[in-house]
Write a structure and sequence with these properties.
Blueprint lengths: L4 E4 L3 H23 L2 H23 L7 H13 L2 E2 L16 H19 L8 H10 L3 H5 L6 E2 L5 E2 L17 H9 L11 H9 L5 E2 L5 H14 L6 H21 L5 H10 L3 H8 L10 H21 L5 H10 L2 H4 L19 E4 L12 H5 L6 H9 L3 H6 L10 H5 L6 H14 L1
Antiparallel strand pairs: 1-6, 2-5, 3-4
Helix pairs in contact: 1-2, 1-3, 1-9, 2-3, 2-4, 3-4, 3-5, 4-5, 7-8, 8-11, 9-12, 10-11, 10-13, 13-14, 17-20
The protein binds iron/sulfur cluster (2 copies).
Length: 436
């Protein structure tokens, strides 16, 4: 009989299961805006993702079947898909509505799984965001950019650079930018919506009728997202979300001041809740695999994401600016991993560890880059970075990371949700350094 082992209660499968349940709740919420269509889209995306995951694992030797992770990916694709036909887009665009939408979801899921999630050794970009941008790139003028806007900037690119108050502009036959938003994302059953601040804020916060499925209700995303953060706090990079939301809010106020907005709150609400920026902030920007490991790195990532989102949405008129900003910021993660690492110390400091749980069988999976092992090390080492350097026999990095300070306490193994023998790799790295 196998020996019972002690670990923290959280496993990668549990993390995926909790995330899946949270996303399912949001699919349920989207039913209130769109009826059955988002449920069909979600089912298609999940089935395609699971199928491709299985297929790739069968034909390649270094890939494992990870059904729960594939199912979560499928739901992220579905929830980051735009549905409905906002009046800002050209009417002939059918990718945004059923049944054509089903085919686009299949493409995005397949490309995301094959090209960005399963094939590379390390995920450099968020697979759902990168796949969506890639599939829609040829249709950039009709799907990603609104067909017109309040101010037409350089080269005909629409721009938000200017006041976006309630009664400043009269373009598009609308009384104001607020009216523009209400007509674009509001209830299609209401032919001429009353443009009041209450109506606009209710729509942006409580229920949208066009746009990303995951953004149907910003309040639902916030509640479900915070619940997930609390349950999985040690393993989810919530600092990115906090830094992103803070940066967007502060910069939107600064822009409102710069452009003398009559209603600064409207600009803040616009940037926070347009499309599904809020869904991205809670469920995509925190993807552990494509974001930095250190706390400082995560904060810088969140600041950068917020600033880029605001600039793209303001000067490119790209309402899904957060998705492009996310892919760009993902590319900085390998560099941000090096920022804010704790200084290794010979002195031993006992970290606060989660409660222990006994396991008879242990399932080892790929590292999810949650960074938990870095915070559990009693000598402030970076166990996962040491493991990566050891796997490449990178002696110079191993000595910089001071792998020789490891005393084999095993805290890194204890907290690892992927149940990787990080301690074993660090101890082997220490032995290697001694031979040098
Ligand atoms: S086993 Fe080594 S690397 Fe892991 S937590 Fe303990 S001292 Fe740190
Ligand atoms: S090795 Fe470290 S970063 Fe990777 S999954 Fe385990 S605890 Fe997380």
């Amino acid at each position: 009989m196998s020996k019972v082992k002690e670990y923290s209660a959280m496993t990668k499968d549990k993390l995926m299961l909790y995330t899946f349940i949270a996303l399912l709740v949001l699919v349920g919420v989207s039913y209130l805006s769109w009826g059955i269509t988002p449920i069909i889209i979600s089912a298609i995306a999940v089935l395609v993702a699971i199928g491709i995951d299985f297929l790739i694992a069968k034909v390649t030797s270094d890939s494992e079947v990870n059904t729960m992770s594939a199912a979560v990916f499928g739901l992220i694709v579905a929830l980051s898909y735009s549905l409905g036909l906002p009046s800002m887009y050209a009417e002939e665009v059918s990718a945004l509505s059923a049944t054509d939408a089903y085919f686009f979801v299949i493409f995005i899921t397949a490309i995301g799984m094959g090209l960005f999630k399963k094939i590379p050794n390390r995920k450099y970009v968020n697979p759902a965001a990168a796949a969506k941008l890639l599939v829609f790139l040829p249709l950039i003028n009709t799907i990603l950019l609104p067909k017109d806007h309040l101010i037409t900037g350089m080269l005909g690119v629409p721009s938000l650079a200017g006041p976006i108050g309630y009664a400043v502009y009269g373009n598009n036959g609308l009384s104001s930018f607020a009216g523009y938003l209400l007509t674009s994302f509001g209830n299609p059953a209401v032919a001429t919506p009353l443009v009041t601040d209450t109506n606009v804020y209710n729509m942006m916060l409580l229920q949208k009728f066009h746009g990303w499925i995951g953004g149907a209700s910003s309040v639902a995303v916030i509640i479900v997202g915070i619940a997930l953060f609390v349950i999985c706090r040690r393993y989810i990079k919530w600092r990115i979300t906090a830094a992103y939301l803070g940066t967007v809010t502060l910069l939107a106020f600064a822009f409102a001041f710069m452009y003398a907005d009559p209603d600064p709150i409207l600009r803040v609400v616009f940037h926070l809740f347009i499309g599904s920026s809020i869904f991205l902030a809670f469920f995509m920007a925190t993807d552990p695999a494509s974001t930095p490991l250190t706390h400082i790195g995560q904060l810088i990532f969140g600041f950068g994401l917020g600033a880029l989102t605001l600039l793209i949405q303001t000067y490119m008129g790209f309402f899904g600016g957060s998705i492009l900003a996310l892919v760009l910021m993902n590319l900085t993660s390998p560099f941000l991993d090096k920022v804010g690492k704790m200084s290794p110390t010979a002195e031993k400091k006992e970290p606060k560890l989660p409660k222990a749980k006994q396991f008879e069988k242990v399932k080892v999976t790929q590292c999810i880059r949650c960074g938990a092992c870095m915070r559990a090390c009693c000598h402030k080492l970076s166990p996962i970075l040491i493991k990566e350097a050891f796997d490449k026999t990178d002696i110079e990095t191993l000595s910089k990371l001071q792998a020789d300070l490891c005393d084999g306490c095993g805290h890194c193994n204890f907290v690892c949700p992927a149940r990787i023998d990080v301690r074993g790799s660090v101890l082997r790295a220490k032995a290697l350094l001694r031979q040098e």
